[in-house]
Write a structure and sequence with these properties.
six-stranded parallel beta sheet; Rossmann fold; three-stranded parallel beta sheet; binds guanine; 294 residues; globular; alpha/beta
């Protein structure tokens, strides 16, 4: 079993971004700028946003965050987005999801300028992704593809089984894995809450992706010998030995599944850092488009 180390791979990508950014700055350009909009106090969202800010600075971007209260009106959030759409100092921005239930998430996503939508969630960008056109790919799925690519893991002709069909991970990843490209060309099965006997599909997977948000959902009996296992889950479970009282675990029973897998992503240190690296890549792309730096 080999560890598919997202931390090391993401560090390499960030190094490359940093070199490129410092060149642009040496040439007299301003640094790229990423803005994050955070609504409310969801602890997981706050952690993600803090990480995005920290990593933006590490690669030489500037960053900013709008912290809006849990009870902010939809109108006020739309006003903030409208402002960011028109702010020449902002190359890309994201609205951290999930949003409180009184806000229509899709309406918010639809209001983001597709050119600044570095999450790749706007319908225009999702449509481009489906068609294989140049666009911002959603960060988690493109981070997973990049992780496979940079570790020279062959995907062509393999059977990928994706457990979970969210708009953020499962659905776009299934499309990227099935695309006609060197790090696609898979036969893809998507399993979801209405799939009877997920195990029957999972055991057939050459590449098994768990993206359902249930701790240790994928057990060793669901995994074929030699499978490549990608764990997208970040679940917080009680752990008295930790200062915080919690620890992060994935959707995969790592200790047992790692005995059967050929490659496996750890949690933390697998998909998570790759998601952030992809967001930075998208932001750099938005910046280069704005200043014609290709
Ligand atoms: N919540 C969980 N993942 C993501 C993501 O990639 N982008 C945004 N905006 N919110 C998220």
């Amino acid at each position: 079993m080999k560890i598919l180390d997202g931390k090391i791979t993401a560090e390499q990508i960030k190094k490359e971004i940093k070199v490129e950014v410092s060149q642009y700055i040496d040439d007299g350009n301003r640094p790229p700028h990423l803005t994050t909009v955070l609504v409310g106090n969801n602890p997981a969202s706050k952690t993600y946003v803090r990480n995005k800010e920290k990593n933006s600075k590490l690669v030489g971007f500037t960053s900013s965050t709008y912290n809006l209260p849990e009870d902010v009106s939809e109108k006020k959030l739309l006003d903030v987005i409208n402002f960011l759409n028109n702010d020449k100092d902002v190359d890309g921005f994201i609205v951290q999801l999930p949003l409180p239930t009184h806000i229509d998430e899709q309406k918010i996503i639809n209001s983001i300028d597709p050119d600044k939508d570095v999450d790749g969630f706007h319908p225009v960008n999702v449509g481009k992704m489906v068609l294989g056109l140049d666009t911002y790919l959603p960060a988690t799925p493109s981070g997973i593809i990049e992780l496979l690519k940079r570790n020279n893991i062959e995907t062509t002709g393999k059977h990928a089984v994706v457990i979970g069909r969210s708009n953020i991970v499962g659905t776009p990843l299934s499309i990227l894995l099935s695309r006609k490209s060197k790090f696609g060309n898979c036969t893809v099965t998507i399993c979801h809450s209405y799939t009877p006997n997920i195990k029957d599909f999972a055991v057939q997977a050459d590449i098994l992706v768990a993206a359902i948000g249930k701790p240790a959902f994928v057990t060793a009996d669901m995994v074929k010998d030699g499978a490549i296992v990608i764990d997208v889950g970040i679940n917080s479970i009680p752990d008295e030995t930790k200062k915080s009282g919690f620890r992060s675990v994935g959707d995969v029973d790592y200790d047992e599944v790692s005995k059967k897998a050929s490659w496996i992503t750890p949690v933390p240190g697998g998909v998570g850092p790759m998601t952030i690296a992809s967001l930075l890549m998208n932001t750099l792309k938005a910046y280069k488009k704005r200043f014609n730096l290709f």
